[in-house]
Amino acid sequence: MKRYIITSIFLATCNFAPLLCTAQITEQTSIVLDTIYANDTKNVALFFPEPIRQGITGTENFVFTYNREKEQYFGLLQAKPGKESNLLIINKDGSIFSYIVRYKEQLSKLNYFIPISSRIGNEKPLVADSIEAITYEESIDNKTYYYQKFSSHLLERQQHIGRIKKQNEGIVLSVENVVFDKEELYFVIQIENKSSLDYDLNFLNLSIETRQKGKRKSLQRLNKEPQFRYNVPSRISENEAVRLVYVLPKFSLSNDRKAILELNEKNGERNIELKISHRYINNPN
Fold first, then answer.
1. Would you say 219 and 258 are in contact if contact means Cβ atoms under 8 Å apart?
2. What does pTM read for this prediction?
3. What is the pLDDT of residues 109-149, one digit of tens each?
4. Which of 25, 56, 64, 74 is the most exposed place for a label (fewest CB within 10 A)?
5. 209 close to 281: Cβ distance less than 8 angstroms
6. How far apart are CA 278 and CA 201, in angstroms?
7. Using CB atoms within 10 A of its CB, is residue 9 exposed (0-12), middle (13-18) or buried (19+)?
C-alpha cells in the first residue's frame, strides 16, 4: 500500500513538473524594446492609435510633450546629450507602450506611427477569458489604419521628388513624391483640373512597361494593383486640384523598364499617360 502511494505521488509530480517549467519560462521571457532616437534640434513625433493619457521619461535629458488638456494622438520627443533612458506611454484605452530612448546628433527618422500591435500590455489586468486572439481581420485593420495615418501625413508635407508632370486639355497629372516606408512604396499623386469642365475619373492605374529586345521590338505592360488607395476622387471640379496616395508593395526597376501612371476619363477623351523613370522608383524619399 505504501509503495502504491509513493508511486502515485511520483507520477503526479512528473505530470505537474512540465507545467511548472513552462510557467517559469513564460514569466522569465523578457520583452525586447524598440529604440527611438532624438536630439535637441528637431522634434521627433510619435503617433499612437489612441489619445495619449500619460507620457513619462526616465531622465531629465529626455522630454516628451503632449497636449494634457485636449486629447491628441501624438506627442513630441526631444533629447539632450546624456545616457540612454526609457519612455513609457499610456493611451486613453489603457494600452501601454515602452521604448528605449537615446540621444543621436544626426537623425534618420523623425516620425513614428505606432501600431496597436506594438503595445507591451494593458493598464488593467485582463482576465483569461477576455483575452482576444489576434485574428487575420484585426491584422488587416491595423495595417489599414497605419496606411491611412501615414498617407494623411504625406499629404500634409510639401515634399517633391522632382518634376514628373503631364497635361492634356487642361487636365494635369503629376507625381509629387515617392516615399518608402516599411515594405511599401507610397506614391503621392495630384490631379488638377484647369479646364472649365468637370473631370469624371474612370480609372487611375499604375503599370510597369518593359521594352522587349530583339528584331521585333515591342512594349509589354504589367498592371500593379495598389494595396491601399487614399483620398481618390470620383470627380474633380473645374479649377480644383486633388491630391491622393497609392500604396504598393516595394519594387525596383531596371534601366529598360518604366512605371506608367494612366489616367482615364469617364465618358471623355482627356486621358493621360505619365511615365515615371526607374530613378524615382529606385531612389524614393
1. no
2. 0.52
3. 999 999 988 888 887 764 444 445 445 555 556 888 899 99
4. 25
5. no
6. 26
7. exposed
